[in-house]
Amino acid sequence: MAATAHRPTARKRPAGAPTREPVRRRGRVIQWKGYLYALPALIVLTVFLLVPLGQLVQISLFHWDGISVSTWAGFDNYTEIARDPQLRAGFLHSFVLILFFSVIPIALALMLAAVTTRAGRLRGVSVFRAMIFLPQVVAMVVTATAWTAIYAPDGVLNTALRAIGLEAVARPWLGDFSTALPAVGLIGTWLEIGLCLVLFIAGIGQIPAELYEAAKLDGAGAVREFFAVTLPGLRGQITVALTLTVIAALRTFDLVYVATHGGPGNATSLPAYEVYNRAFGTGQVGSACAIAVTLTAVILLLTFLITKVQPQEDET
Amino acid sequence: MAERTPRHPRRRLIAAAALATGVLTGVAACSPGPSGGSATSAKTSGPVATDPAKAGKVTLTVWDQNTDPGADAATEALNKAFMAKYPNVTIKRVSRSFADLKTTLKLALSSANPPDVVQANQGYPDMGAFVKAKLLQPVDRYAKAYGWDTAFPSQLLDLNRFTPDGKTWETGDLYGVSQTGEIIGVYYNKAKLKSLGLPLPTTLGGFESALAKAKASGLQPLSYGDADKSPGIHIFGVIQALAAGKPEVRKLVFDEGDAKWTDSGTLKAATTLRRWADKGYLGSGFNGKSKDQAVDSFGRGKSLFLLEGTWQSAVLAPKMKKNVGFTALSPAAGQPPLTQGGEGLAWSVTAKSKHPDVAGAYIDFLVNKNGMKAAATHGNLPAIPPADYKPTPGTVDADILTRWKAVSEKDGLLPYLDYTTPTFYDTLTAAVQELTAGHLTPKAFTSRLQSDYSSFQNSR
Question: Region Disordered: which residues (chain A) (predicted)?
Fold first, then answer.
């Protein structure tokens, strides 16, 4: 951490040292002009993002049912998040989803990407890629409805299990307390794998062919080649994939809204679903806003951590 | 990279400053919601102009939840007839499903330009909240002018009454009237009941022994699917009505007196439901099966019974013809039936409506004899069945009409349990899923409900 912060400053100082004053002044003028160009966007950003964000924080400090007079709550709504076991469980569930939305898809997509690029000229490879990417294009509501049917007690999955003699395994996947959350998570895996794969295949295309040749000359096999050339070359893409999929996992709403309503019991309740439910269903708008603020903070924190973990690829 | 890095802190600083400004202006502004005391100047007394023809050119915006085919057709026909009778009135209809209406009506009502007539759901979560926020106006003067106060049985009218502060239900001003009625009851497969040699059950005990007999003979006793979470309320409500009785349930839902959700009646109901689940009467995998799948499986003759609302008759009648019957159970033999139910959502006039008298006349057009008849001819159960409404004998509609009369005229209607507190729907539906799955004991189940109830009582 200290090294990365130190390096650029060290580099800049010798470049700027001799003519410090003029450069700085000129630089500043140019910069402010630059901000003028950004002003329209900044205004739009303020009106549509920052002001609502401010209101969100404001409302989170009140007890409000959405229509009648509100009363000051202070940090009550926040302490409730810490105290209410159901809300805490919601946040825990979304961390479980990160495993299914991020870790598994990225691992699988890395494997698939390595295999497809090594397969050389595979016939109709773009068709396969399109098929794997397709889940990203389909509306989440459609996805959720389709998977609900697959997971149903008499759905495709259970029918298939019974056909191969695994009757004992068959169950109402979304209605069983122990399988509901993983079942929702697997839908996420299916969704995100395409995105990761497309990112990684594009990334592999950017890795210089000489590196692979050199690896081959050194007698590296498929596995060595993957760890020595492909994986380091994909670090940037992995970070992007990680950021996108982690955010997708944390803000999952529609999937749960359509497939389980947070059930059975509260086994699949998630913060984003609770935000909607409390704001529009049960008239606890202040509490909904507090959850939203907390969720935003968690997402920002995780994204920040991911970018910190990212290696400085520009060094090469 | 070397160029970009030093700029970062400044950019972040500006973003942070903008964010902070936004937050500060937000928090510094007044608290969310209407500022206290800005009650609308709704005219709630004085003479009523009962002739919309004299009102000049009027556009009436109406929000309803009649999206089911029968209800939709009846509303459409009545609107057309109203506009034909009063050419100076245009009705702008906005129709949303129940769930969509529930989530959007609050925003619409609190906007500067709300609709004139809305269908408001009874109970503390909706109507109570609207009344508290002064978004609806009392319609007592219309009730007097149009005779609703004598036409409707008082137990139906009381469901639409609230004290002006929205804190006490069932008394105070009238905030609307309903056009249709509904109860939860037992649909049964006539042929299967006969082949098992079973009499039509009349009590909870008789029903349970019929369930046992069906199970023993290898027939699925009940079609039940609770993935949508709402059927859980209905099945538990019906059992609780019979096990706990009228006074206890009413005290709990209307929040009168010292009843507790942990009392013996509710505990007995929870124990019964858990027993049904354990004995397999509810089938397997019910928490992953949708309500529609359950109704469909009963419709295809896969089970003996279905516990559902009268609104499902429109789905079942075409499929099963005269093989489906409908009944409601009594707490004990010889007593009148007792079940969950009530009336369709109340038609209410909003506080800010510019034409309240036209709105009142429109509501009367929906709920007077003609309006009820129009509802009936499109397959709905009218709240006050007109004397000349006679469904074909032997059909499920005829059964439903008989039971509705037996229940509503003998004070056998019990309120839906989700009316209890704003969060009760969530609490109860999740708890029923856990109870039937064996994750909650009946005792833990009742104390979960009680803790929701007492926190609502404390916050009021």
Answer: 1-22
